[in-house]
Every structure is written in C-alpha cells, then in structure tokens.
Amino acid sequence: MKEKSTLSRRHFLQLSGAAGATALMGLSLPKRAFAQTEKTINVLTVGDPWDLALQTVVNQFTEQTGIKVNIESLGYVALQARLVNSFLTQTADADVIAVDQMWISQYADNGWIRSLDDFIKADSDTNLTDFLPEVLYSLNTWRNHIWTLPVGAYAQGIMYRTDVFEAAGLDPLPATTAEAADWTWDKYFEMLEQLNGMEMDGTTFYGTTVIGAQPVPVVHMYTQLAASYGARWFTQFPNAPWDFTPTINSPENVAALQDWKRLYGWSPPESINYLWFDAGTRFSQGDIAMFYHWTPYFYLVNNEGYLTGTPSPVVDKFKTAVLPTKLPGAYVSAAATAEPTAEAMAEPGSQQVVSLGGWALGMPSTSENQDEAWQFIKWATGAEGQKAMGMANTKGYQFADFARLSLYEDAELQKIYPFLSTQLEMMRLGNGKVVRPPCPIYTSLEGVYGLNINQVMSEAMEPEAALELTQTLFQNILSGNNMIPYEVESYDDTLENTKLLIESLAGTA
Question: Where in the chain are the domains?
Fold first, then answer.
C-alpha cells in the first residue's frame, strides 16, 4: 500500500505543549484539517549521510506545506550535549531532533520527548504498517509506546572485492540467506587468512579492516560478532522480568573477543584508532579484501573518502553479502521464527542475530510548534520524503537507509541500489534490543566495554581478563544505579508486542 502524498488532506491532532507523559494518558483529542502555514520549525540533526540527503530535498516539504525548516547539523557528542542541556533547562531549543536509539529510554522516562502514539493514531497516512517492524522495535519503541520514527536505519553486512576473490580462486559470497546455510564465521576467517598479504596489480592486501577506536565506535562493530556467537549483556532483557545482572564474561563472549583479536591481526595496524568512516574509507582506498560494517557503507564506499563525492577505486569491483553465522544452519532457524524459543536458543549461536541501529526523528516536549513538527517528522520518515532522499544522489552523495518495505520494493530505487535485497534480509533479522541493549545507562556501560575491547587489541590485556574486568565494572555501575536488583516495573519488550502495538496504532488490530 502506497503512502498518500497530499499533505493538505492529512489530519492531525491539535496538541498543547504538554510534556511527553501526557500522551501516555491516552487522551482522545480531536482531529483538524491541516492548512498551509507560514511557521518556521527548527530541526537539530547529526552529520550522517541521511542528514545531507534530507537537506537536499527539504524544500519539497516547504513547497507542499508552507512550513519553513531550519536544519542545524551537529557532531554526535555535540548533539547529545546540546539536547541534554536543553532538556534540563526546559529550553525550547528545537521542534524536531535526531535521536540515537540508545537515548530513547532516558529521554522517554524523563519526559524529555513526547510519545508519537496519538499523532500516529490520528493520521492514517502515517502508514505505520509500511515500516519494517524490526526497525520500529529496535529504534523507536520503549515501554509499549512509539517515541520517534526512523529517518535512517542501519543493519550490518559484508563488502568484498570481487576481483580479489576471483584472483584467489574463491567463490562469490552469498547475497541471500537462502544461499548461506554453510556460510560461517569460521569460513570467513579462513578466507581472510588466505587473502591477507595477497598481492595483485602491485597492491598488497590486508585481509580486512576493523573499527577499533574506543569507547563507542569499537563497540558498534564488535558487538555484531559477539551477538552472532550468542553473547548477551544481561541475564534477562528485553524479555520480562528484567534482570540486569551482567553476563558479559561468558564463554561465548570470550570466544568472540579472541576472534576479534584475530580480525585485528589481519587489519591495518592503525585501525585500532579507526572511527566508523575510517574503516569504510580504508576499504575505498583499494587495499582491503573484505570487511563487515553498517549497511550505509554499501554505498558510501563508492566514494574515495567519507562523502567526498569523488569515485573510489573500488567502484564496480565489490559486492555485498549477508553476514556469516556462528553455526551452520543458523539462518534456517532464524527464518523459522522471529521470536526465538528457549529450545531454539539452547545452543548459543544457533540463531543469527543482526545488529540494527540508526537514527530517528523525535519531538521535544518543549516544542511550541508540535503540529508543524509532526508534519515534518511524518514527511521526512514517510515513503515520499525517503524516496526523494534516495533519488537525490547529489554530487555522488547517496541514501538507501530505508525503514519502509515499499521502498525496498521500488524499482527505481532498486536500479540505483542493487544491494537492497541483501540489506532487507539483514534488516529482517535485526534486533537492536539484544545486540546493544538500550537500557537507561547504556552509555556508561558502552564506555567501559569499548575501553576494554581496545585494550585487548593493543595487547595490554588478554580477552579473558578484559571481560572479567568488564563484568565487575558492569556489576558496579548497574548496582550503583539501582538496576541490580531491578525493582521498577518491567515490560515484556518483544518484537511480537511491537507488532501488536503497530496494529493497534494503525487501526488494523
């Protein structure tokens, strides 16, 4: 079902400037017709690829609605600091904000952003059922409410040099899970060992590259490997009842960290300090055989540097593939059920779990232009706005980080982004609540975790010792923040419950 494109026929709530907690009361507020306005809204974003695409096409929204949009783009750390300061001082700093999935629990629990439930229920053209439920589950929900909508959704997958594989006598990698029954991390490592140090056309290749910088970047890449191995952060989360007793020092995580150290051994030495884009641009430089990363790099590696717009030497020399699994057949079991049973998960790594992250747009409770803010959120995350972003392709900048199924099925977008079918399969297996659990003090835990992973890479610590220390520090942080024992009411935060929420808000239940 296609989303309607005529904003003038849309209806939405006339809302007061009440805090986000008001929406939780389930008030039934009247709808009214949307009329063009001369108002201006302020939008705070982050410097990711979707931000450039959005700025390229935002005038289309203004032309349709009369709402002017001022977009201010900040770095990750600066954005987080600016938002928290405005929340604590109750300053109406912006009408729409970019929200990292890891911030939602803190922002929602403190009433800093308002739930979008009532807006969604009032506007049938939100077309909520077009969103991939795995994305809404991972990025946008907390305690059975939708707080944001996805503007850029990221899974993880493989990029590899087809010419290097051919020269090495290796078969192409599986682009679909149907082809990946025996595609395991063991085979991945065997290939890297063969490819590392290989020479071709005067270039000596590294097998791979990693994101090694601490405290945050290394966690993003490492946790995908660990999740595939069956490692989990806590005794029980997000399923109820929540028990945040850490399980970070598990045999599965020790095995994953040992293999992570092997990955670094086949990478450029300087990758211990690589940020996200450093790893992507290193592949673009033409001396990396294969690596895994967030799916935006499926198109970003076409640039010789990060968003330079200049074609890289690997253009038309690489393909994408689905992630390996720890055990053979893990994709078969993953396809059998979106909600793994205890029996299915009895053996760690028996079911593939893909990291799913990204950015979403939310509404501060202090916004004085909530009607107009909602119209912008709905357009920028809707099929019309997202397709415009994908089609812009200005100066070599691209955007394909879609959260809507209709866009993965769009023939025009498929022609520009031939990897969409692979990306969709990874999205369908995404679980951001498991791989990097968005508990209220996630950022403190992530800082400890990333530091110790980096210590293993520098050989300052062995994997076993690093995880033992991480376990102790997790325990102390969680206990000090009254999360062990957890005495606040839990919510059974499952994908199935998110699907029920979608049906309820969309009126299809």
Answer: 7-154+356-431, 156-210+273-353, 212-266+437-491
